[in-house]
C-alpha cells in the first residue's frame, strides 16, 4: 500500500512538472517574512481546539522554509519555518533565532511573503507550495493534510473568498436632492405600482429600447473594435473585476499576481490556475491560454500610450525598470479610460502612478 502511494506521488510530481501548463520548474521557496502576527505551533494542526501554540511570532519575523503541508479542510498551507530573525520588540512569548515552528498561510487572507533562492520576490507561491507539499508528504501523510495536493480549482477559489459586505439600505444615497428622508420610502405600499401599471411601464421600456448589435462602449477609441468591446462587456470580465474588488486588501501584500490569478479563475476568464510565480510571467501564461497582448498587435499598440488607455478588464503587466530580476506587477483595469482604477492585491486609482514600472503587456481574450 505504501509503495503504491509512493508511486502515485511520483506520478503526480512528474505530471505537475512535465505538463504544458507548467513549462518551467517552480522557484524553490527559500525565505519568508511575516507581514502580521501569527501563532507558532509545534505541529501542523491549526484548529482552535488544538493545544499546540508555542509562542506568538511577531510581524517582521524572517525565516527559511523547512517543510510544507496542504490542509484538507481549508486548502490553505501549514509551513514549518526556521527562524532567522525575530521581528517586533522582543518579549517572553516569542521565538528565538534557530527555533522551528509551524505557521499558517491562509488562502483567504495571507500574512506571509516569500523569496526564492536568488532573493527575488515570489508573488504567488502556490505552485512552489504545492510541489513542496507533494515532496514533503511523500511518506506517511499527516492527519488533516492532503495526501495528493493540487493547485486550486475554480470551486475552491470561489469558496475561499472574503465575506461579501451586505449593502445597508439605510446608507444608500438619495439621488434626488429635493427629497428629504421623509419623502423616501422603498417599500411603502402607496408607492408600489399595480400589476397593470407595471406591465404598461415595462412595455414602454421595451418600445423605447434601441436595437443594436454593438455593446455600449464609453471609451470612443475602442467602439470600432468589436472583439475588444465584446471582451470588456462580457460577464466573465464583470465577474473577475467583482471578485478582485471583493477580495483586495487595503494595501499591497506583495502578492499581486496571486490575487489577479484568483480573480481570473473566479470570474471564468481562464479555465485553470495560472502557474507563474511572478507577475512578469503573466504575458506568457495568458498567451498560452489564448489571450492577445495588445502591445504586440499592430491593430492596437498605437492606441495605448499609458495604462489608462487600456480597455476595461484588460490584464496589465509591468516589468521593473531598475531591477531585471524583480517580479514586476500585474493588475486588472476596472473601468474605461480614466474612470475607476486597477485591482490586484490592492486597489489604486488611475490618478495614482506606478514608479519604476514599464508596461509590457495589455492582455485581452478575443472571441470570434
Provide a descriptive summary of the structure in words.
By secondary structure, the protein is of the alpha+beta class. The chain has two domains: 2-150, no CATH class; 220-364, endopeptidase domain like (from Nostoc punctiforme) (endopeptidase fold (from Nostoc punctiforme)), CATH 3.90.1720.10. Helix content is 23%, strand content 20%. It contains eight helices and 14 strands. It has a six-stranded antiparallel sheet. Strands 9-14-10-11-12-13 form a six-stranded antiparallel sheet, with helices on both faces. A two-stranded antiparallel ribbon has the order 2-3. Strand 4 (62-70) and strand 5 form a beta hairpin. Helix 6 (235-247) packs across helix 7 (256-266). The longest helix is centred in the N-terminal third of the chain and has 17 residues, at 2-18. Mean pLDDT is 84; it is low at 1-25, 177-190 and 209-213.
- Rg from alpha-carbon coordinates: 24 Å
DSSP E strands, number: 14
Average pLDDT reading:
84
- Secondary-structure element order, N to C: HEEEEEEEEHHHHHHHEEEEEE
Shape: globular
Q: How many discrete structural domains?
A: 2
Beta-strand content: 15-25%
Could you give a short account of the major beta sheet? 6 strands, antiparallel
| Helix/strand/pairing category | alpha+beta
Low-confidence stretches: 1-25, 177-190, 209-213
| Major sheet strand order | 6-5-4-1-7-8
Number of H/I helices: 8
Proportion of helical residues: 10-25%
Tell me the distance between the termini: 50 Å
